[in-house]
Every structure is written in C-alpha cells, then in structure tokens.
C-alpha cells in the first residue's frame, strides 16, 4: 500500500523575492500564488510546491507520488524504484530552491549598482528580479541545445513538445503536470524521432549525443570543471555552456554573450544602429563582473522593447 511521505521547509530569502509566473516550457506551473512542479529524484516521482505566506518567507512542500499514478512514456527508461523517501524529498526541495533562486543573496549587487545609470532604474523597478532557473543542470543544457540558432518562442514550443512526448505525466487533460525527460530518455531516441519535434539536423544529433554522454557519466555538468569536456563536443559552443552555467547552476557571472537579444540590445544602446559583435557585448557587460549574467537577463527583461527593435541576424550556438 502506498503511503504519502512529505517533507517541508521554510526559507527567508536574503534579498527581495517574488515567485515567478511559471516557465516557458510549462513544466513549472504557478496558480493562485503556488508554484508546482513534478520532478523525478532517483527515478521516483515527487510533487513539489512553493508559495509565499508572507513577502519575507517562502514555504516548500515535497510529496511522494504513487508511481502508479504517473504515466510514463512507452520508451526504454530506468525502472522506477518505488515511492520517494525522505532523502529524495529533501533533494527535490533543494532542486526547487535552486530553480527559484530563493537562496541567492543580491544585497551586494544592489548596493554596488543601484546608482548605475543603466542598471539602477531596473533594480529599483524590479528588486526581486531573478533569471529563469532550472531544477537540474541537464534541463538547462538541453534547453540551450534546443535554443541554438532559433528564436526563443520557437525553442519553448519545441521544449513543450519534447516534454509532452517523452516526459512523465501526472494527471489528465490541460491540468496535467509534465516532467522534463532526463538524459537517459533522450539518449534512446533515434535522430528521426527528435527531428519530429522540429529540432532538425545537427542539433538533433547533438542533443542525443549529449544525452548519451551525460547518462553514461562521461560529461559532468554539475560544475564548471566539466565545461571543457562539453566544449570539445560537436555543436556545443560557449553560448550553450554559458546558458548551462546561468540557468542550471545559478552562476550569476555566466553571460551568454552570443545571444541574439544581447547582440541586438548592445547594438541599440551603443548608438551605432547596427548589430553588436560578441566581443562588444562582452566589453559592454564587463564592468558588471561578477554579475554579468544577472545584469544581462535583467537588461533584456527591462529593455525588451529595444531588443524587439534591433536588426535581425544569425543566432549563437
């Protein structure tokens, strides 16, 4: 008989904080002030929720899910070992905390740049701003591969297709929760299957190759020490690894300088009426070290209309 185990935690964010509105791939759902995510820890399903009973407090609750209630895709995957235990529930809470950036102290950043002519007004407008994080480094890395050379809206659509096709599901209909398929699930897919998600050509091959390396332990993506190995792989460039660092490992200084948005934005702010080069983007954000990635996402979010007005160009990988 299944017994629902529960773990809870309360966090007092060290900086102003507000829950996000959700995620682009729709795996993180926020309704009625409660953020909900289906995760798998060691193969066992966990339902994690986060909410703010007060501005200065964030509550987390992780519940073990009956594996029989989770619909798994009909593909070769590691078997579910059973319901999650206490250790897995606590790991799921830690992953959710990482995805929501709730433990990150931005006090030094605010003090250093609150009078900066570019960033200061954005800090005052959004003191609770955080980049969109991911619970696991694999999710950030896979999303970066999907997002190579295409617009963000299309990339998010492809991510949703992948989760819908190969991710585990809890519930039915529009209200169902999906988990992002792990590397072992993607490693077993044929390139033609991945291309059906509109991830075509070399990017489909790169995603499968990367999934196989991560699943086999040949790529250690949890820390920057493994980045050199990643950069040696075909189709994996600095932009992809920088996205992994910022969105998957909470590295505030990791700036994906080749991003289309930065190239457009810096080109506009520079007053030249042209696209900026990657070295120009890096030079523009250099004064904000060790917060270049944070400042990059903050300026993109706060000055998005300038980005939309920028000239079209080829995106980075």
Hey, roughly how much beta strand do the residues contain? Answer: 5-15%
Mean pLDDT: 92
The tally of domains stands at 3
Number of helices: 14
Instruction: Let me know the CATH homologous superfamily of the largest domain.
Output: Hypothetical protein, domain 2
First-last Cα distance = 49 Å
Describe the structure.
This protein has three domains: about 5-105, TATA-Binding Protein; about 105-130 and about 250-315, no CATH class; about 135-250, Orthogonal Bundle (Endonuclease III, domain 1). It has helices spanning about 85-100, 105-115, 120-125, 135-145, 150-165, 185, 190-195, 200-215, 225-230, 240-250, 260-270, 280-285, 290-300, 305-310, and strands spanning about 5-10, 30, 35-40, 45-55, 55-65, 70, 170, 175-180. The protein is globular. Helix content is about 40%, strand content about 15%. Strand 3 (about 35-40) and strand 4 (about 45-55) form a beta hairpin. The strands form two sheets. A five-stranded antiparallel beta sheet has the order 1-5-4-3-2, covered by helices on one side. The chain has a three-stranded antiparallel beta sheet with strand order 6-7-8, with no helix packed on it. It starts with 5 loop residues before the first strand and ends in a 9-residue tail after the last helix. The protein is of the alpha+beta class.
Main attributes of the structure:
about 325 residues; TATA-Binding Protein; Endonuclease III, domain 1; 3 domains; 5-stranded antiparallel beta sheet; about 15% strand
